[in-house]
Every structure is written in structure tokens, then in C-alpha cells.
């Protein structure tokens, strides 16, 4: 939890690392630091001045995104992630602040229909900064180009009220299997090398049962925190994201469609 003013200095380092997608006010930052936990971030309002798209599928996906944004006349910037994907940022008309900002951005991106990584739109999500060195490719995240246009005026939406999940009789077996795996994960921590598989399998059962993406992320983050050799929160989110991408009909963050 560092002031935004330090980001520019961090990016000048040899390996800039990561920053949260959304910014928190000072009171929230102190509370988060004191709690020493990455869970429960969604209770805080956040700041953001841009919408970010995380693209994992290479140049063809980037071309589809650029076409969609150009059609809308939007300004945007493109960054090479240092791996096979790209990050695209779209400036907002003004700095936005509120608890439902991540949900509102997610809804807008879903409507864009470009297969961007929807797991990004959570209060505590992190993303590599320009200059970060990818551990596998050893390439840095680099700025590619800026495209002029208008800024995005994002409609601010309120997440619908309702249960975190709903399922029919066909989902009971998957729900029971997911709960069993949760209990097993608490009683018997998986060995390094098996943790991603345990997280993915548990998330897949919950996805097939109809639980919301957000609920599954939250509960698996809490399980991960109990492990002596816990994974990075972004790695947990990646496992859940992969499970929900493979689900026949992924639920929304606030509940099943």
C-alpha cells in the first residue's frame, strides 16, 4: 500500500513488479495493512482513472479489441505484457470512486465481447507495471503505442442483490465435491506443485454447480491464506479464472445468470 505518486519511481527500476488495478483511500489502506490479509477487499470503495483489458491470446485478440475500440472512437494505449499477451488501457472521462467500480467495468467489458480476462475486475486484483520482467520469457512489459480518441464515460451500476449462488438438482454433486475438496484442503495442505491443481479442481466443481465467480475467488483465497506455503493471490485468481473459462456457462461476479 504505497502512495500513487511513487508508481512513476517504481517503474524506473530494473524490475518494477506489480500494482493493484484499483487504488484505495488512506483509511482503507491502513485497515488493509493492519489486517495483514488480502481477503475482504470488496467492502472498500476504490479509485480508478482507466479501464484495463488483460488479453492472453496474442495478436489476433488484440486486433479484435482495437477494432471494437476504434469503432467506438475511444482512446487507448497498448502494452506488450512481456509474454504472449497484451494489456490495453482506456482512459475514463474523470477519476471514478465507489464500491461498485470493478463490477461496472466488468459489465462493460463483458458487453465488448472480446474474451478479455474477467478476473481482473476485483477490488484486490494486481497487474504488472511497465518495466516488470516476466519470469519465464525474461522480457519486460513495454509500451507499444497510444491511439487518440475520446475517453470512456462508464455507466456506474449497482450489483444486483440476491444469493451468491443458485443451482438445480444437477448441481448438487458438484457442490458436494467442491465442499469436500475445501475441507480436504484445510486438513491436508497440498504439496508445492499440486496447489494449482487443487485450486483449479475445487473451482471447477463450484463453477459447474453454479456458484458465482466472486464467491469462489473469495473462499479459495481464504483457504490459500491458511496454507503454510501459500500462493500469491494472483495465482489463486488465475486458477479460478481458468476453471470458470472451462465451465460451460460461467456465472457473473454477483451470481449465476
Task: Write up what this structure looks like.
- The radius of gyration is 19 Å and the shape is globular.
- The two termini are 35 Å apart.
- The protein has helices spanning 7-11, 26-35, 58-71, 101-112, 172-187, 195-209, 213-226, 233-246; strands at 18-20, 46-55, 76-80, 86-98, 126-128, 142-147.
- A 4-stranded antiparallel β-sheet has the order 2-4-3-6. The protein has a two-stranded antiparallel sheet with strand order 1-5.
- It has 2 domains: 4-147, Alpha-Beta Plaits (2-Layer Sandwich), CATH 3.30.70.1790; 169-246, no CATH class.
- The protein is of the alpha+beta class.
- The chain contains 8 helices and 6 strands, in the order αβαβαββαββαααα.
- Helix 6 (195-209) runs antiparallel to helix 7 (213-226) and helix 6 (195-209) crosses helix 8.
- The longest helix has 16 residues, at 172-187.
Main features:
alpha+beta, Alpha-Beta Plaits, 2 domains, single chain, four-stranded antiparallel sheet, disordered C terminus, two-stranded antiparallel ribbon, 8 helices
Overall structural domain count: 2
Shape: globular
Main sheet: which strands, in order across? 2-4-3-6
| Count of extended strands | 6
Give the N-terminus to C-terminus distance in angstroms.
35 Å
Q: Helicity range of the residues? A: 25-40%
The low-confidence parts are 247-257
Mean pLDDT: 83
Strand content: 15-25%
Largest sheet: 4 strands, antiparallel
Question: Count of helical segments?
Answer: 8
Q: Report the radius of gyration as a whole number of Å.
A: 19 Å
CATH superfamily label of the largest domain: RepB DNA-primase, N-terminal domain
CATH structural architecture of the largest domain: 2-Layer Sandwich
What structural category do the secondary elements indicate? alpha+beta
Q: Spell out the helices and strands N to C.
A: HEHEHEEHEEHHHH
The fold-level CATH name of the largest domain is Alpha-Beta Plaits
Amino acid at each position: 500500500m504505497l502512495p500513487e505518486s511513487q508508481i512513476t519511481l517504481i517503474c524506473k527500476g530494473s524490475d518494477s513488479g506489480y500494482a493493484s488495478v484499483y487504488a484505495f483511500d488512506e483509511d482503507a489502506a491502513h485497515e488493509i495493512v493492519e489486517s495483514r490479509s488480502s481477503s475482504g477487499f470488496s467492502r472498500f470503495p476504490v479509485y480508478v482513472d482507466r479501464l484495463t483489458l488483460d488479453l492472453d491470446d496474442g495478436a489476433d485478440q488484440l486486433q479484435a479489441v482495437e477494432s471494437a475500440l476504434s469503432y467506438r472512437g475511444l482512446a487507448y494505449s497498448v502494452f506488450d505484457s512481456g509474454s504472449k499477451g497484451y494489456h490495453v488501457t482506456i482512459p475514463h472521462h474523470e477519476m471514478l470512486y465507489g464500491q461498485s467500480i470493478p463490477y461496472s467495468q466488468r459489465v462493460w467489458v463483458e458487453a465488448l465481447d472480446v474474451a478479455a480476462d474477467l478476473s481482473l475486475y476485483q477490488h484486490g486484483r494486481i497487474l504488472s507495471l511497465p518495466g516488470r520482467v516476466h519470469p519465464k520469457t525474461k522480457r519486460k512489459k513495454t509500451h507499444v503505442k497510444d491511439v487518440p480518441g475520446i475517453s470512456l464515460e462508464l455507466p456506474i451500476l449497482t450489483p444486483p442483490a440476491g444469493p451468491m449462488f443458485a443451482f438445480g438438482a444437477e448441481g448438487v454433486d458438484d457442490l458436494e465435491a467442491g465442499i469436500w475438496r475445501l475441507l480436504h484442503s484445510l486438513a491436508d495442505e497440498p504439496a508445492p506443485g499440486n496447489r494449482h491443481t487443487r485450486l483449479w479442481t475445487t473451482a471447477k466443481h463450484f463453477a459447474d454447480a453454479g456458484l458465482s465467480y466472486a464467491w469462489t475467488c473469495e473462499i479459495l483465497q481464504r483457504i490459500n491464506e491458511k496454507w503454510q506455503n501459500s500462493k500469491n493471490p494472483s495465482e489463486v485468481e488465475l486458477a479460478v479464472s481458468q476453471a470458470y473459462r472451462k465451465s460451460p456457462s460461467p456465472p457473473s461476479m454477483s451470481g449465476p445468470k
